[in-house]
Design brief:
It is built from 12 helices and 10 strands. With 285 residues, it is α/β, with parallel strands linked by helices. The protein folds into 2 domains: 232 residues, Rossmann fold, CATH 3.40.50; 38 residues, no CATH class. Strands 5-4-3-6-7-9-8-10 form an 8-stranded mixed β-sheet, with helices on both faces. A two-stranded antiparallel sheet has the order 1-2. A hairpin with a 3-residue loop joins strand 8 and strand 9. Helix 2 runs antiparallel to helix 3. The longest helix has 18 residues. It is globular and about 50 Å long. The structure holds S-adenosylmethionine. S-adenosylmethionine (SAM) binds next to helix 8 and strand 4. The site of S-adenosylmethionine has 20 residues, from helix 8 and strand 4.
Length: 285
């Protein structure tokens, strides 16, 4: 059963230690930074309503069902592999074919505590258009799309390289009644440009696929012209490898970024003109 707040499950000590940073964010003169702060505050220390908790519990029921599935499927992996693997550009472009158990594939999904933070940020930022790189079986996408459904506006397009995994993500959204989420199957290098064009201006962009330094930077550059002026960009697994750490360091220094929040495993960029005062916030959770 999902606890009432992410606070109850994110390390309590770290969440408490982060309180002054969350307060700074909430008091920012940049309204989008303040909304991200509010989302983090709600996710970490807030009291979610019963209906919101029920919605998230359904997503966790779906995760549990997939974790208990014995079926295996064919997958094609266009990602970076494991953090110690050195896949070549060509291998990542062609994809690596294998067979995998659905239960193992599902384990790559964001844990509930992190997905709930995304959910609360989306609740507070009220994006109309969101794009996710890396659907997997649709768990983080469901947290994002359910927040948009609660907001009464917004739709999510999520991209997944493996057609069989994309099919399961589509099933996840339909099981959960999330008609505002759709999956596009295919390698990002083939699908992203059309999705960007169809989704512009993009208010919320979650990059949780292809954890390779150059790929992360490339997809960021490619997305820039399609982002709305004050878009929120979340990048997952920023400490997964030395390449990901380097990508995050580069991204938060980009001149198009007004402010950034380092949550340890995940980074959040708030696009736009720089605001006077502090622009880089660190609160490892
Ligand atoms: C970490 S999982 C995503 C987890 C998901 N966001 C969640 O939390 O529920 C990354 C997914 O991205 C997909 N992926 C990685 N690199 C890709 C690429 N270059 N093109 C298409 N899909 C890719 C993988 O197949 C995998 O399912």
């Amino acid at each position: 059963m999902l606890k009432n707040t992410a606070y109850a499950i994110v390390s309590g000590y770290r969440a408490i230690r982060s309180k002054p940073v969350v307060k700074e964010l909430c008091n920012s003169s940049n309204p989008v930074v303040a909304r991200v702060g509010k989302g983090l505050h709600e996710g970490l220390y807030g009291n979610a309503s019963q209906s919101a908790v029920a919605g998230l519990t359904q997503i966790e029921d779906r995760r549990r069902a997939l974790l208990n599935t014995r079926e295996t499927i064919k997958v094609i992996d266009y990602g970076a592999g494991s953090s110690y693997e050195q896949r070549t550009e060509e291998q990542m472009k062609q994809g690596v074919q294998k067979t995998a158990a659905i239960s193992n594939i599902c384990k790559a999904s964001k844990p509930a505590r992190w997905a709930a933070l995304l959910h609360h940020i989306v609740l507070c930022c009220e994006p109309k258009s969101a794009v996710e790189l890396g659907s997997c079986v649709g768990i983080s996408g469901s947290y994002i799309a359910s927040a948009m459904k609660n907001n009464g506006k917004g739709s999510l397009t999520t991209l997944e390289g493996s057609p069989e995994i994309a099919r399961i993500a589509t099933e996840t959204f339909s099981t959960l009644g999330l008609a505002n989420a759709k999956v596009v199957a295919g390698a990002f290098h083939s699908t992203l440009s059309n999705v960007l064009e169809a989704s512009k201006p993009i208010d919320f962009f979650f990059n949780d696929g292809h954890h390779d330094r150059d790929a992360v930077l490339r997809y960021f550059e490619q997305s820039l012209p399609y982002l709305s002026p004050n878009a929120v960009v979340a990048v997952d697994d920023i400490t997964w490898s030395s390449g990901m750490k380097s990508a995050w360091k580069t991204l938060r220094e980009r001149k198009q970024v007004a402010a950034s929040v380092d949550l340890g495993k995940m980074g959040i960029l708030i696009m736009g003109e720089p605001v006077p005062g502090k622009s880089q916030f660190d609160m490892p959770l």
